[in-house]
Amino acid sequence: MLISRPVFERPAAAVRPFALPALRHPAVSALLADHRALLAELLDGLGSPLHVVLPEVFEENVARLRRAFAGAGVTADVLFAKKANKADCYVRSAAALGIGVDVASAPELVGALAGGVPGHRIGISGPEKDDALHALAVQHGCLVAVDSVGELRRLAATARTARRQARVLLRTRTAGQSASRFGLSAAERAAAVGVCAERADDLVLRGFSFHLGGYSTTQRATAANEMIEHCLDARRRGASSAELVDIGGGLPVRYVEPRLWGAFLAQNRPAHYHAARNFQDFYPYGGQTADRAVTAIMEHRVDGAGSLSAKAGRNGIRFVVEPGRALLDQAGFTLFRVQQVDDRRDADGYAIVTVAGSSFSLSEQWFNSDYLPDPLLLPTGPEAAAAPAADALFPACVAGATCLESDVLTWRKIGFPRPVRRGDHLVYLNTAGYQMDSNESPFHDAPLPRKAVLRLGDGSGPPHWRLDGV
After folding, report:
1. From CA 184, how far away is CA 146, in angstroms rounded?
2. Are strands 350-355 and 394-399 parallel, antiparallel or unpaired?
């Protein structure tokens, strides 16, 4: 049964060395504990790997994020960043909840419209968008973030041909981003505001946005404050409709306990990985939660005076936020079937577990990194299920079944509680945010993995499932 404020299961205090057990939503725990047979049947019937997606958890995350903005006393339009997962079910949930979708391509825009999201709730991002995407955006009244004066002029021409006004955000480099390839410089921003005034029949300037990497709440609040100033300046130049500040995505997700995360970073060494890979940069798996990040951004003091939220309220500013990963927190997991185990413990000290599938179907978008939360081992067969855990850990990394040396799902050596066997199942938790399908590929002519949509409802009966997109 889903609850409005989930209490994530904490790993046991006596955690084994170097383990990074993933936090689990109660819905995921219920599925793994009470409906393992259903998951096994789905994996058998639909193939390995199988992505299980949970729109009810997505809906909880939307509600939690809305509460965080409301608690800060600000108005914010939430746009789900569709790039984070291709599943249609999340777009349908967004439409049902009345939130928007952020897209960056014509197929993504068509998918959002087909999922029931009206055009005025769709944001168009991405640099130097083509004319076809512009035309669709104008036709459906989408909010278009423009990256250059040249793109702005092209968009104005498209709007004039369609005899419609294009709703525009000007994506602007912040004071500390002179080297960024995204956004307008100060001089270009001034010129773009002038173009909006000259082409007022074709363009309506709604506000400003920025691109910011990383998860610093201070940097995001500082950038948002700059955008408020740009709105005020644009109003002084006649753009009375400039009232939106798009703070982008960049809201963090907590995958593991912060205490464990700190311990991992302190002990991390190349020797802990297959082939002694030297990973130096990781997603902050044990960092802040999204709702607390929102609070920190909105409460940040700006101009040496009050909070960002207070300044926005005084000046009639509304925020736009484009979370992807944060709305998908705990909203899906991935199942693999073990295809072979190469036990090299006598020679190398660890085994290589090969799964049916590849790392194209489970990978971290933090480049040159590893997806670090431990996979769960689900033994299969009556004798395996009844067997107690082994006295000693079974160290192993996890690889894909392609001919690529680099096809490794988990480079880090995992301490499994019992030997892994052919036919066992591995569960990677919390994979809906980017890990599932950002890098998917039909390499070796393998079909793309299926997504099974599961809903638990009130928990009184078995879960209902369907294939995504059906």
Report:
1. 9
2. parallel
Contacts 24+ apart (CB under 8 A), 8-17: 8/330, 10/257, 11/257, 11/260, 15/260, 16/393, 16/415, 17/415
Same domain, 140 and 198: yes
pTM: 0.94
Point out the least confidently predicted range of 110-124, 199-213, 387-401.
387-401
What is the tally of structural domains in the chain? 2
List the CATH number of the domain containing 197.
Answer: 3.20.20.10
- Clarify whether residues 186 and 235 are in a common domain: yes
The answer to whether the beta carbons of residues 329 and 428 sit under 8 Å apart is: no
Mean pLDDT in residue range 102-121: 97
**Which residues lie closer than 8 Å to 19 by C-beta, 6 or more apart?**
11, 260, 374, 415
Would you say the C-alpha torsion 406, 411, 416, 418 has a positive or negative sign?
A: positive
Of 328, 349, 384, the residue at which a domain comes to its end is: 328
Of 424, 425, 407, 418, nearest in space to 16 by CA: 418
For residue 461, the model assigns a pLDDT of 80
> In the block, which residue shows the tokens 């036990």?
343
In a domain, 284, yes or no: no
User: How buried is residue 120: exposed, middle or buried, by Cβ count under 10 Å (0-12/13-18/19+)?
Assistant: exposed
Domain residues for the domain of 397 are 26-54+330-467
Boundary residue ending a domain (305, 328, 351): 328
Mean pLDDT in residue range 111-121 = 98
Confidence of residue 457 (pLDDT cuts 50, 70, 90): confident
Strand (E) or helix (H) holding 51: strand 50-53
